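#onboarding

Welcome to the new folks! Below is a worked example of what a typical request in this channel looks like: someone posts a single protein sequence, and someone else replies with the predicted structure as tokens. Don't worry about understanding the tokens yet, we'll cover that in week two.

Example request:
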Amino acid sequence: MLICPTCNHQNPEGTLFCTQCGRDLGDILGDTTIRTRTLVNDPGDIAARATWGSAQFRKGAAIILHVRDAAEPLMIQPARRIIFGRVDDNSTARPDVDLSSYGAHEKGVSRQHAVLEINEDTLILMDIGSSNGTFLNGQRLAANQPRLLRDGDEVRFGKLVTYVYFK
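Example response:
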């Protein structure tokens, strides 16, 4: 216990100020310097944590769409323009990639939700006015504003979470 010289209050060890009168108890504690150790940076650790994949989409590569909690990923053959959405029996609009079998309706996927376009050697993702939004790595996309897609990105259509890989 530390005894405050001003009010004689008993304070727990390590207390910097008296809990009764507020007096600085640093002079009673003596040296309160806390020692730290310097860590050596291991470049391997930093490289292992890099999360950004390549934005380059090679000619002849395929797009792998892994839907969270799905047993098998979807292999998508690249086309100039790929529309993601869900099928609705009351509509004639048909997406190129139908997400209906993944609970798309319940998770807020629109019939015509988002589009993926090949732009030279990159992929561009764009929300096409969906009701519940398209999210790229957690950030909501503004409608009709193209965003660069990278290998390993998380794309959320409404509440349907997917991951995109280039193979």
